[in-house]
Amino acid sequence: MKSPCSLLMLTLCFLAAFTPTPADAWQDTPSQATDLSEPVRFASFNVALNRRQAGALNEELATGDSAAAQKIAEVIQRVRPHVLFVNELDYDENGRSLQLFHDHYLAVPQNDQSAIEYRYTWVAAVNTGVDSGLDLNHDGKTGEPEDAFGYGAFPGQYGMAVLSQFPLDEANARTFQKFLWKDMPDALLPVNPATGKGYYDAATLDSLRLSSKSHWDIPVRIGDATVHLLGSHPTPPVFDGVEDRNGRRNHDEIRLVADYLGGDADYLYDDKGVTGGLPQQSLFVVVGDLNADPNDGDSSNNAAQLLTENPLLNHSKVPVSRGAAEASRDSGGKNTEHTGEPGQDTGDFNDRSIGNLRIDYCLPGQGLSMVDCGVFWPASDEPGFELNDASDHHLVWIDVVLADDSSR
What we know:
about 400 residues, Deoxyribonuclease I, Chain A, globular, alpha+beta, five-stranded mixed sheet, disordered C terminus, six-stranded mixed sheet, disordered N terminus
């Protein structure tokens, strides 16, 4: 049994998780929503906490001294989202990496920031590193990272996670890890341009999953309302050949999300065998590193526009930062050829070959009123500028107010 002192400390820590920090240079942090008229902050962050070997991240995080994790945690403590979707946190079956990151980094003040805690978390298996037993890249070998259902050196590399200060309806969560690519109508399956035949044979397509990690629908209970957190991390549309297998897969992974929203999802089946998409009139937020920019980069068939121009999504505001615009201007290179608004960028990549791109998203549905949004990419004269190298991606956040309709 815990002592009264221990219980007091736990209570204080719990309350601290919901205490907003003072306003800084780029946003005011909302307090925890106590009713549906209060703003709720959702965020998406590719934290780049992936390691080359299974178990390596756990060993690193267990010390409490990981400089990389401390920087990532400080970013989250500064922005203080209520609901956070994370990409590239190595998954393990017991959820140990997420627990260690939460307990040793988020729940510990970083660089004079206030600790933040999340009572509710979610992790599940992903396709990265899961061996397909097939030669998916046609190099005459099997069992390599490119032959996994999603590129990875071990099962769970580049995993995903959800952290929430509101309850998660786990019983009604849906995952689409095992949905087969061939089962999407009119899928952009790759073709060998030299022969005009499909890049994958029938036997391969009978096993090949669409999602390179997974697609999740995690219901979040906020007061009497439910907001569906729709998270994914499509494969980068590069590292392939003229058949464009990764570019086409990226497109169809994003299309799965769009179909799930729009009523064109009768073909979909989740990992429990339940078919169909999101019920109409549902509240939702689309989150994740989609590896596709609406205007620039190497994505196929304007994949990102399936969401950025989707009428079911609220486009009244677009997250921006001064730091992204400054970085694009100062770095030059490929950035000078881009046509998109540089202040909307979220990823900082090789300026000679790729440039900075908008590839991380936090997109609310039309049923949510967006009152504020932003990207944590501080300019050189803003607090937190020294954290810009925490990841090659930058956290994107939105503040939304839920419609007061408990029937949803």
